[in-house]
# Entry
Amino acid sequence: MYLDNSATTQVSEEVFEEMKPYFREEFGNPSTLYGIGRESKKALNQARQRVADAINAKPEEIIFTGGGSESDNLAIKGIAFKLAKKGKHIITTDFEHPAVKETLYFLESLDFKVTYLPVYENGVIKIDDLKEAITDETILITVMHGNNEIGTVQPIEEIGKIAREKGIKFHTDAVQTFGKIPVDVEKLNVDLLSLSSHKINGPKGVGALYIKKGTRVTPLIHGGGQERGIRAGTENVPGIVGFGKACELAANQLDEHYEKLSSIRDELIDKVLGTIPEAYLNGDKEKRLPNLVNFRFKAIEGESLILLLDAKGYQASTGSACSSNKLEASPVLTALGLDPVDVHGSLRISLSPESEKFDVDEFVDILSEAVSRLRQMSPLWNDDLDYDGVMCKKHGDDCRMC
Amino acid sequence: MDYSEKVMDHFANPRNCRKMEDANGVGTVGNPTCGDLMTIYIKVEDDVIQDISFQTFGCGAAIATSSMITEIAVGKTIDEALKISRNDVAEELDGLPPIKMHCSNLAADGLQAAIENYKENNQ
Ligand SMILES: Cc1ncc(COP(=O)(O)O)c(C=O)c1O
Ligand code: FES
# Structure
């Protein structure tokens, strides 16, 4: 059973069918004038309308991109470059997706100043912190809607109101929330909003940036003038068509999916916390996505837990350093103020609308057995060892790499 | 993670994973902050490792290397056991992913620490 839908999802049957003709029969370039090009153009327009409808935007406010990461880059660099003369201060949070965080680090190297708001133990920012951070130099606020590791949801509407009052541009990364909770650009008071197709049962490598009418960004990809000159390059027609269909389906079934997923989620949280000793939920219990939970278990390491679960047919993920390719504990969980030892024992489970067959009782039994098995092996669980004396002998207490 | 079949076998069916109450040498190495903490227990008689066991907090590779070293070291004299290197353990497991060679391959260090502890206890 695939429980890692925050990482990516399977393309749905309907989406796949919709895409198929655009690989061979309808292969035309949408910029050309003859029949087959016109068909592609029509398909592109329909997809744009579908994406726009799904988030209560106008079609001309949708720019298709190569995915969520590109949308984030375009929004942030696009505004920063456009407004650099006005000011060079940007506000964000402590636990953004790397597509935002690394973009901001890059801008810091170009002398932009960035304020990182704390997310506290519950993984939600405080509005007062935001108000305090705003200066005359602030040109952009970028705060993610739903966090991809712990699933907490930020008060976007409220942030948007403040940004608007102050005349500051506001971007949100809605890659994880879209299709899970309502994403309405008017209600959320946003100027820019990032979407990605492969998190909503659409194809990979395609996404969109909503840019509110009147908001101007500097393009990142220059060329043949596609996407109103904001994003050059012959459009990924099959991908965009699939994305459009996925948006339509996600929007139409939002309420139904929300009900279904949040009830599975709540059952899962109750049973895991009720059955397994020293198990904790990461992030706020209420302000969260319906499809994503993140737990931590004392005295065990996440990669071994993932391997044991995989052996039983469940695919999930962890923020443990041991499973990252940099051997670095999850920056998101670290931003919550968790001890690195506790971050090791984290487990992320993310559902999709297709997870209705997910048997919570059976899963919790298997999880519980895996956790206690690893705890039986763990000196941290069984002993009252004095760990202060047991640090890496080669590199000292600060060693993170050996 | 790209683990060999042997690593997966030792991870899934760890050998000699238990606390040893009557050990006469115990060594703990690693750093829970970075992900591994390993305790090796040995019982030495007439300079020979008669019994060896471990407890490990860590990734698949950390558990597999701990398990493997118990198989390599049992029956060896402490001088022979001191010569077991990190590479020996990795080789017996048909290799480890490069990133794990350094971080999780602590078992040889753990065994050395246990032997040092045994020597201290028996001076
Ligand atoms: C919150 C968030 N933003 C951005 C991205 C990047 O999207 P993409 O993989 O389409 O580039 C992801 C997914 O990895 C995400 O979870
Ligand atoms: S970093 Fe793992 S033991 Fe030092």
Notes: The interface with chain A takes residues 1, 8, 11-12, 14, 17, 19, 28-39, 55-60, 62-63, 99, 102-104, 109 of chain B (CB under 8 Å). The two ends of chain B are 44 Å apart (CA to CA).
